[in-house]
Amino acid sequence: MPDGRLAPSREAVPDGRLAPSREAVPDGRLAPSREATDATIAARTDAYFNRTRAIVQRFGDCRVTYAVFLRRPVVSAPRLMLDWLESVARARGTQFDIELMHAEGTWAGAGDPILYLSGSLAELADLETLYLQKLGPACVAAHNAYQMCLELPKAAFLAMDARHCAGFEMQDMMAYAAAVGGRAARAEGARGFIGNATDATAHWFAEPGEPAPRRGRGTMPHALIGYANSTVRAAEMFHDAFPEEDLTVLTDYFGREVTDGLAVCRRFPELATAGRMAVRLDTHGGRFLESLDPAESYAVLERHVPGAIRRYRSETELRHLVGTGVSAAAIWRMREALDEAGFPKVRIVASSGFNVGKCRVMAEARAPIDVVGTGSFLPDIWSETYATADIVAYDGEPRVKVGREFLLRRNGTRKRNGGG
Which of 87, 389, 393, 404 could bond 36 through an S-S bridge, CB–CB 3.0 to 4.6 Å? Predict the structure, then answer.
């Protein structure tokens, strides 16, 4: 609407169904150009930036350079911001010069400019609010994803964050961030993020030259188990509907992770033998995996990784090791049961709160995880995502507010990531 509020009628057709987003292109990606009109920018930016633009237009323009940075270490993920700035420049018939100091997927320190942005102040003044929104959260989430993948380098990761996002724009941003962080970790030998849960954002995980568009990944939620009223029956229904798909069965609905997991393996021995089956552990944090309790959890780890439990642990670390929910002991117990029953090729997918800290504990316990499904790379502390921009030069003259002198270029230049 004219005042910038969302118009509900634009999101629903007469029978109440949601209408396709007007901000998305056919494959589901956001179209930056649709947010690049002056009316949209004026409605969504801070009012003092609109007034600054009007004043500069009245009293005379100048060329400025902004330094754009975050206050914490991050992995650079600037593409959404850069694409949007390009679309704005095109719509306004101007040009913005961008010097990227930290390429996508590289580490940037706290306060170190990720990029310098130069152009007309009249054309840049009102954009700051919007381009910072597109940078900070993506960089923090990319850093989290990168760390998680490095903690468990032998496990593949699936981004399962969509349900935790505040709308599709955030969903798209977080999928992009996971892909950036995953590729950065892959460059250091980790498997990284191999995909995500939704079709609309799966394109971020595509590799160059892939013949077909990526699709969202995932087999079954708890709702399907409840509908079938049987873990085995739900697996049968899935396989009947999608016979070409690998089968990942969710085993915790009835609290019989081991029993039901093995029952599905016995029902589909050909899939289990071919390595086309996995069991997913998503045990509720209020109970132990089937057959475990505190004593038996310690015993499981004592059999496999005794060193993991023989040093002091924080309460959180101890819970990840031998507590309720999807603990290291639970994963080891599931692996034991599968191997003992003759299903060594059945993989284990672990989910439920796998953030950086939990991944680190799982690594120390050498938990036999094949795939991690997680949305916990989303920023925990939102204030850490606040990106900042300061003008550091007006018509070529260095000038910045007191306290931000560290942003100024030294001797007219500043080192890029990697020293170049």
Answer: 87
